[in-house]
Design brief:
Its main location: nucleus. InterPro entries: Mediator_Med11. This protein is mainly alpha-helical. It has one domain (about 1-89): Orthogonal Bundle (Helix Hairpins), CATH 1.10.287. The protein has 2 helices and no strands. Helix 1 (about 1-30) runs antiparallel to helix 2 (about 35-89). The radius of gyration is 23 Å and the shape is rod-shaped.
């Protein structure tokens, strides 16, 4: 499970690099006197697709970490309650 989460984060990192590459290509193309509209369209679509993937995966990772945190807090509280009950008995 942990290895899968790390692999997903590595994929997100690659997707972020793709976003930056597309943004650079778009800026470079826009700086030209005569721009290639179809190239700009392709780069924009790839940029948007990559941004959506990054957002989706990071949202999923945040949801998972939030769930883990909640579970950990519950377990710590239960442990503390158990220890208090053991000490008073």
């Amino acid at each position: 499970m942990a290895n899968e989460r790390l692999r997903v984060l590595e994929d997100v990192e690659k997707e972020i690099a793709s976003v930056l590459q597309c943004a650079g290509n778009i800026v470079l193309e826009l700086s030209k006197d005569k721009t290639n509209a179809s190239f700009l369209d392709r780069q924009l679509i790839q940029f948007q697709t990559s941004v959506n993937r990054v957002e989706s995966e990071l949202t999923s990772q945040i949801r998972y970490l939030t769930q883990v945190k909640r579970t950990t807090v519950v377990l710590v509280c239960e442990r503390q309650q158990f220890q208090q009950q053991s000490c008073s008995a």
